[in-house]
Each structure stands twice: as C-alpha cells, then as structure tokens.
Please model this.
Amino acid sequence: MPVTHSHRPPSPTHSAKMLERVLSSRRAPPHSDELANEDDAATADESKTKKHLPFFFFITRLINHFRIGPLWPCVIALFFVLFLISSIVFQSRNLVCVSPHDPAYRSGFFGFDALESDFGSLGVPWCRSKHGKTVEWTSKDLIKGLEEFVPIYETRPIKNNMYGMGFDHSFGLWFIARWLKPDLMIESGAFKGHSTWVLRQAMPLTPIISITPRHPEKYLKKGPAYVDGNCSYFAGKDFVDFGSIDWKKVMKKHGIIDLSRVLIFFDDHQNELKRIQQALVAGFRHLVFEDNYDTGTGDHYSLRQICDQSYIRGGGHSCYKDSDEARIRSKRKNFWEKAVDIEELCGPGEAWWGVRGYMRDNFNHSNKVISYEEHFQNSRIVESMLDVYWELPPVAGPSLTHQTRYDPARSPPPIVEDGRYGLFQRLGLTRLDRSVFNGYTQMVYLQISRQ
Model:
C-alpha cells in the first residue's frame, strides 16, 4: 500500500515530494514495515524517483534549473543529433565487405536470436509419438558425452570424410550406441567405413553387421578407409538389401533372442517410411536415420518430410509468393546455403510436401508423385508405429562452429548455444577444423512398435 498524507496539512516542501511520487508512480511502493516513519518513506520515494525519472524529463528539469528558457528545444535537438552520430559510429564496424555466408555478417544482420528463431510460425515439425514418451538422456548427458568423444574423434582413420558423416552425426551415433549398449549393431550404408568405426568406438566388443553395396576395403586402394574385424559384411558380391535379408536366420546365427537389444543405423538414402515398415516386420525397435532431410531437400522421403503436416505444430507451408513465409525464406536463403525458398519448396499445383510433391527413394533414382492425401496418410502410419522421436541437435551454434550450410531456424537448439565460447573451448571443439561441422542433416533416433 502506498503511504498517504491526507491527515497532515501539506507544506510547500512536502507538496514537491508528493509531486515527485506521482511522477514516479510506475515504481513499486515500499512496504510500510520497511520504513521507520512517514517522513522516511517520503525520503525513500524521492531517492527512487531521482533514479527512475525518464532521461528527457531529467534534461528538462536541468534546463529549467539553469533557466535556459526558450533555447531548450535546440538543446534537445542537438543532443538527439549527437546520439544519432554516436550510434552510426558504433555500428560502423558492421559496414565492411564480407561474404553473406560469413557468421559475423549473418549475426550482424539477424542478431544472434534470429540465427535460430527467425522462422517464427514455420517452426520445426516434430513427429508425434503414440504415448508422448521421450529419450532418457539430458543436455547435461550430451555435454558430458561431447567431452569424452572429442579426443576419440581426433583419432579417426578417415580425416576427410567428404560425402560422409561429419562431427555432429558421428557424435550422435556414438552417443546413442554408447547409451543403449545394444547386443548387436546393424548399419545399412557404410561408404568408407567411418560409421563402422564410430560404432566400434562406442561398443568395442559388440558384433556389427554392415550392409553396403561396395565393400569398404575397395576404398583402401585410393586412400583411408576402415574395415572391422568383428563385422559381418553383406557387401560387394554378397550384398543383399536390408529389406530382403532373412533376419530370423541372421539373429539366430548371432544368438540374439531379444530384438529390442539391437540398434540399426540407416545411412542408405532410402524411403524412410519403407525402412521403418521393414524394420517393424523384422521385429526391430531401435533405429537411427542419418539423413533426416527437411521438406524440400534431400534425395529420399524422410521422416521430417512425412511429419511436416498442418495439424502438427511447426508443420505445413504456404506457396503464396507474397506471404510472410516467402519473405522470410527468401531472406534466409541469402545467408544459409541449404535454406529453401518458395521456388524450391513448391512444385506444380502448389505441392510443397516431400520434395515439390515427390516421394523420392533409392538415392533419387526413384521419384513418385504423391498427393497430399497420401502424404497425410503416411504421417498417420508413422504415428501408429512411433514410440519415441528425437532429433539430434547441432553440436554448437553457428557463431561457434562457423557452419554455413543448414539453416539453424529449421533445427533444434544446439547443445552448446551461441555465446558459450568458454564451454565450446573447454570441450575441445576449437581444435577441430570448421569443415567437420558443415554436414548436419537432422539425424533422428526412433523407437518403434506395432500399434
């Protein structure tokens, strides 16, 4: 309650104090038990008023005190001009010629908050699980894992893994395998063997099954590759596609009874809906998809594309060229190499789902036009099988990693957020070449079961 003085005849000095209290009415009144008496309350009010008076009101009082008279508008105008000049000088460091993909240029244009949040209503589509379950690990667990993984990653045999996994996904696969501790690990798509090496670092003694058209040993003739001694290869002349393998026979051979103790890693650029259905038929539950491409991008139909629906928060898009979405996408395209504008997002008949209305498969060798009705039905099929959906966040914000490709507005918040350079340095991430952070494509971990 404010302290009142209606019972006391107001003196000129006291009236001035009351006026100041009226002018500072936005401040919170002091509690009566904190002040010894009413005069102390008035003194306290006056001191707070002097701290919180608007700056221009303070200037006006100063002018009146020195009786500047009619010159005071000129003084205020002069002050405004000086303030404007100082602001221009302060911001002049941004007026330099740099690449639009340079992180300093992006942060100066958007501000650090907009590095992640400028998509606003577009959001990030998130596949809905049947019972709302999520993963057990926390951000603290991820940070602790990073501290352990960085020195491991520095020993990798394939230093230049172009067209393969970078640091973000390598860490994600290692962390998930390390956390789940499966009895058997299966990978579909091995390339030079980097993912096999990552799985081996996570679980040194666990058997691995690798399914890949070309055996990694073939790459040894041209440069670094990795072939694992405790790995069964369906590769080269022995290659069989994941969906065609007799998994009951293979599981029996490896002595696996509980299929929930098996982890499957897909980096084969196949229709992910097809792969989920094949895994479910075989009885597997834990899946990781390396390339969970965003809507409008990629060479196969991904979970993120499937779950990009109007009824899901952050899902659905507009192909109207004068919309806010079109404006924001166009702006971000200038700063992020893999950002997608309306022209790339939308196909004939304003079809935006998948890639311009296409369900891509088999390394982009198969392109099937689908209707929105079919796309919508696919999302319901996925939801009927999905127990957990978790997208791996980027390891660190773009101002730290200097990545220029993926648009952070279409990704979860990073593990190490922008501005936390001390943590970034403590984890050893400054020792890594910037190029290893440019391969993020929303890797996702799933748990599935029958409806």
